Please model this.
Amino acid sequence: MKTTASKTKTTATATKRSTTPKTTAKPTAKSNTKSVIKPKKNAADGLRELFIDSLKDIYWAEKALTKALPKMAKNATSEDLITAINHHLKQTEQHVLRLEQVFESIGKKAVGKKCDAMEGLIKEGEGIVGETEIGVVRDAGIIAASQKIEHYEIATYGTLRVFADTLGESRASQILSATLDEEKNADKMLTEIAEASINIQAAEEK
Model:
């Protein structure tokens, strides 16, 4: 009898445990919103506003490049690289004018807004120049820094073109497409210069 009572108690306890619902900790509202960035007072609330804001960003960036590219050319030693940089400088000056045409096509004044990304890329390029010996190693560094800039511009102009298409701004899209093609060609040219000689020569330096 004692044994039977013990078994009955054990079974009852097991049943109680199995029927007790498991509870999981629910995330609090505070933990959900902790990493959410509060929008600024003048934050874009539509695609058109984001489009215009992005145009201001790249307009500032292109103007900054017209000052940065001559410095890169002066620190390069490869004639092919110097020619490529100077050629792209002329294109960049045209890109500034094209962006002004884009602003005009959408009925807005051409105004720049500081581009933190481009400012950082330019500073990084200057840092690479200071950390490399004059010659092919520095040339390789200049190409690396330049291509980072090109890739940023390719991404930006590609996005802006899609925005323009979505907003029905066909004239703006056409202008942005022309610049996008030139940025892609500039990136391709830098790759060809690097692979043809500069990277190979830099690898032989001690």
